[in-house]
Amino acid sequence: MSDGEAGSFGAFRISNFRVLFIGTLSSFTAFFMSTIVQSVVAFELTGTNTAVGAAVFGQGLGMVIFGPLGGAYADRLPKRRVIATAQVLSALTFGALGWLYAGGMIQLVHLVVSSFVLGGAFGFIGPARQALVVELVSVELRGNAMALTNVANTMSRVLGPFVAGVLLSVGQLGGTLAYGVMALLYLFSALLLLLLPRSVVREGARDTHVLADAIEGLRYAWNHIRLRHLLIFFVGVMLIGFPHVTLITGFLENQLDRSATDLTRMAFFSAIGALFMSLMVARYADSPFATRIYSWMAIGFGLTLMILSGAPGFETAVAAMVLVGATSGGFHALNGAVIARETETLYMGRVMSLTMMAFAGFSLTALPLGFAADRFGERAVLFGMGLSVLVLALVMGRVVARDSLRAVRATRLSMSLEPFDDDG
Q1: What is the reported pLDDT for 364?
Q2: Dihedral through CA 108, CA 111, CA 117, CA 118, nearest 10?
Q3: Distances (CA, A) of 34 to 94, 181, 198
Q4: DSSP 418
Q5: Which CA distances in Å does 389 have to 158, 236, 322?
Q6: pLDDT tens, 87-123?
Q7: What is the domain partition of the chain in residue ranges?
Q8: How far apart are alpha carbons 159 and 70 in whole angstroms?
Q9: CA–CA separation, 169 vs 178, rounded Å?
């Protein structure tokens, strides 16, 4: 099926994918609510970018430690069970934070520890959910389904900040309500999994140790040269550019003379741009142009971060955030599609866990970037991030384009060497 036949919403014809999409939207809405809520609470407790970075650092540390295991378990256990268990754990964590906030007992250490638990849970949820997508759709719709899954991610970037902003504006009860809603969203997503068919379990999975599976997945990704370059590209952009979200609170307070709560508005408009671009590029997720568009999105992301760093006022910063959201959203929406196209189903969970590690890296680099922003200013750090993303995108874009050209040449050569059929 061509991209024209599938359209932007081809995978929605499958009812099981629609159920999974709703669950994904629910859980990611809670996830992006937590980014806002945890950042605002951390900044209110201490007034520093470093504290915000520390809260996010805990999440990244959890992903780094548990992400490889999450990918291995996604390829050896029923994926529904893996996702549901991690989501229930996340719901309990948010419930505990809500109780602490309501009692006036919440401290930065609670935010860091809870972020570590949530990061570890996400290390299991992410790979299993993306591998489950592959089970529910045909090969012809795999790229489109992956792109639409990232559209759910992007839609939640709109809903999450909006809902978080509404709840946080309630007053003293705002934080408690926000944590409670996040817990309920995770529980709802877990319950929806009961409507899906039983997950496929890899044959002979119990014959190998989970650590051996994880190592085998790493070896597979490294030895597959096109897949290796795509993963380096994605992880690099995530490490350098995506932590910009943790600097926006300080950017508002220190550079634009605005309240930290305006973070919800900035995140909302960024998500609007991301949603629009994600829907645009989803149509081409299974096309030959997907990797080229992917590279151009990364280049645009670097340029728009540089534009954001020079915004003179709040209105121009909001406009720049729309562009930042559009380019980063388009890049992220196509990531699952271009990587899934290069990955064998047997290794899908483990390979997708490596893309989840990019989120871990982004969380980990948030802390040193927070230190840098407190010392050199948010504008200088944002500009440096944008310039670095731009250089990386230009280099890796050329590398993956060369890989694609070599693959086409190899295919043509193999076809030309096939023996003729004298009877034909």
Answers
A1: 67
A2: -160
A3: 9, 10, 30
A4: S
A5: 24, 8, 18
A6: 999 999 999 999 998 888 888 889 989 989 998 898 8
A7: 3-198+207-414
A8: 27
A9: 10
Residue 253, helix vs strand vs coil: helix
pTM for this predicted structure: 0.71
> How far is the CA of 44 from the CAs of 178, 261, 354, 402, 416, in angstroms?
16, 10, 34, 48, 66
> Could you tell me the sign of the dihedral formed by the alpha carbons of 218, 223, 228, 232, in that order?
positive
Q: What is the pLDDT of residue 205?
A: 62
HEC letters along 57-92: HHHHHHHHHHHHHHHHHHCCCCHHHHHHHHHHHHHH
DSSP 3-state of 293: helix
Q: Does the structure show a pLDDT above 80 at 418?
A: no
H-assigned helices in 341-420: 348-376, 378-416
Q: How does 263-280 read in b/e, with b if 16+ C-beta sit within 10 Å?
A: bbbbbbbbbbbbbebbbe
Tokens matching residue 178: 């926000």
Element (H, E) at 1: none
pLDDT band at residue 156, thresholds of 50, 70 and 90? confident
Instruction: Give the model confidence (pLDDT) of 245-272 as tens digits.
Output: 778 878 888 898 887 667 778 877 887 8
Q: What is d(CA 241, CA 346) in angstroms, rounded to the nearest whole number?
A: 31
Comparing CA positions, the residue from 119, 120, 149 lying closest to residue 135 is: 149
Q: What is the distance between the alpha carbons of residues 76 and 96, in angstroms, rounded to a whole number?
A: 31
Distance CA(11)–CA(22), nearest Å, equals: 13
Homologous superfamily (CATH) of 3-198+207-414 is MFS general substrate transporter like domains (1.20.1250.20)
Q: Return d(Cα 74, Cα 259) in angstroms, integer.
A: 42
As a whole number, mean pLDDT of residues 340-345 equals 80
DSSP state of 224: S
Least confident of 177-181, 200-204, 307-311: 200-204
Report how far apart, in Å, the C-alpha atoms of 393 and of each of 19, 225, 302, 388 are.
35, 18, 8, 9
